[in-house]
Amino acid sequence: MSSMSRRQLMFAATGIAAVAAAPRLVFAQAAAPAPAAAPTGPFTLPPLTYPTNAFEPHIDAKTMEIHHDKHHAAYVANLNNVAKTNAQLGTAKIEDVLGNLNALDDSIKFTVRNNLGGHANHTMFWQIMGPNGGKPEGEVLAAIDRDLGGMEKFQNDFNAAGGRQFGSGWVFVTVAKDGKLAIETRPNQDNPMMDGKRALMGNDVWEHAYYLNYQNRRADYLKAWWNTVNWAKIAERYAAAKAGTLGA
To answer: Is 48 a member of any domain?
Structure first.
């Protein structure tokens, strides 16, 4: 062995000894805090009336679980937090609050707009979806033919409007008290009730509604979503709109 090799070996041994003699540091990983329970209050998360896999392959079960159990549940929790110090929020009708947001104190207006709007939008969304949803009939079909140019044109225009919505938002069919229909979009969690209107039906075009299956292919999601529509529920909402009793 050369003198250089012996010198290198000496330095290495000295380094090993120093490390061995140094105090041992123990890094303990702190346990993750348990998730906080959702605040209770006047607002509740409506349960789904069908299993989360009911719409596969059009909408996968995991997306439904995250969408309902996480996103919608968060809107409800946020509303219940606000209602702790604003009790009137939990006793008023949703349509009255959303239709008169400027009456709210500025400290809660933004939170209520986003979360009550999201709660109203999603409550409608789960209601108008269902397996074996059939086809539009009766007054709803007649209104689609009269106001929206027939079913094929209606679906194409609805999908196109949803595709054009920049960023997050919704595409709706609004319904007037005389039964007239129109296709409209709203950003974020805004709802037609904020403009004194009512939503007959609508589709969520936030990415959390479709990204696991469709990634950036929103157009494919919009087309597939029609396989989940429950036309019997939409007929009920249409009758309620004409009777002046349609809320969220």
So the answer is: no
Burial class of residue 53 in the structure, from the number of CB atoms within 10 Å of its CB (0-12 exposed, 13-18 middle, 19+ buried): middle
Q: How far apart are CA 208 and CA 72, in angstroms?
A: 11
Q: What is the pTM for the complete model shown?
A: 0.83
The per-residue pLDDT string of the chain (248 residues; one tens digit each, 9 = 90 and over) reads: 444 444 443 434 444 344 344 333 333 333 333 334 456 899 999 999 999 999 999 999 999 999 999 999 999 999 999 999 999 999 999 999 999 999 999 999 999 999 999 999 999 999 999 998 899 999 999 999 999 999 999 999 999 999 999 999 999 999 999 999 999 999 999 999 999 999 999 999 999 999 999 999 999 999 999 999 999 999 999 999 999 999 87
Q: What is the CATH number of the domain that holds 99?
A: 3.55.40.20
Structure tokens at 170: 């919704």
